[in-house]
């Protein structure tokens, strides 16, 4: 992982078998973004492959992620074939998304798709038995933490991922409008957004011209696909991600700011534990007083 230090950004993984340390000062990171900003996505990918150890691609198999996978498959560098995928199976994906995973396996058999699910459950039934039905309505922060934030952190830890390629673009709107090509998040993970400059039309045209399999929901008005319970088709003129959490102020699930979401969740659990201990102490006191 990358962690923030007063003098800049540096790898924080101290394991003897971990990847070599990579160091960025703040001015260096700013300089890199200026240089990468003017490059084509394929050149950004080549830079990432040759510069960043422990590199993976995170994807929910949206159009941009599919384009990145295809571009990587065509780069004539040995390590480009070793940039494997991380997919978070929330257990609430559309069937069309799960079908696409298998199509991607067939199209790029040399790529390993690392699938991570919520901890200690493997099916929707098991999830709802443990957490109840419609957790996303009852406590969306807890839901996001359980299905996205914790699995992503576990993935990075178990795979020794120091850096990831993402499919985020400025044209998707909302908080992504001022996206840099390369950034380091609150948890210290470096993220590269190779298609940050591209529009939806550019991405769609690349998919069509290269005959890349894609999510069939896109043909039904979906431009950004997440969980079935929080994704809707959009109408002409709406922002690309406006179908996600429609009618809410929310635009991200927490995975792109995991440290703060993680801290919020842990703080909530800590307060709950403290309240339970306080209630237990009061109950014990009442029992003692009544017996006296």
UniProtKB/TrEMBL annotation:
Plastid keyword on record? no
What GO terms in the biological process aspect are recorded for it? cysteine biosynthetic process; methionine biosynthetic process; sulfate assimilation, phosphoadenylyl sulfate reduction by phosphoadenylyl-sulfate reductase (thioredoxin)
EC numbers, comma separated: 1.8.4.8
Q: Which Pfam families match?
A: PAPS_reduct
- Which region ranges are annotated with the description Disordered? 1-20, 232-252
Polar residues compositional bias, start-end: 11-20
Keyword set, alphabetical order:
Amino-acid biosynthesis, Cysteine biosynthesis, Methionine biosynthesis, NADP, Oxidoreductase
Source species, domain of life? Eukaryota
Please state every residue range assigned to the domain named Phosphoadenosine phosphosulphate reductase. Answer: 56-233
- Quote the catalytic activity from the record: [thioredoxin]-disulfide + sulfite + adenosine 3',5'-bisphosphate + 2 H(+) = [thioredoxin]-dithiol + 3'-phosphoadenylyl sulfate
Gene Ontology, cellular component aspect:
cytoplasm
- Give the Gene Ontology MF terms in alphabetical order: phosphoadenylyl-sulfate reductase (thioredoxin) activity
What's its top-level EC category?
oxidoreductase
**InterPro entries in alphabetical order:** PAPS/APS_Rdtase, PAPS_reduct_dom, PAPS_reductase_CysH, Rossmann-like_a/b/a_fold
Pathway(s) where this gene product acts: Sulfur metabolism; hydrogen sulfide biosynthesis; sulfite from sulfate: step 3/3
Q: Keyword check for Flavoprotein, yes or no.
A: no
Q: Which HAMAP family match?
A: CysH
Give the family this protein belongs to, as stated in its UniProt record.
Belongs to the PAPS reductase family. CysH subfamily.
What is the name of this protein?
Answer: phosphoadenylyl-sulfate reductase (thioredoxin)
Q: Which organism is it from?
A: Gomphillus americanus
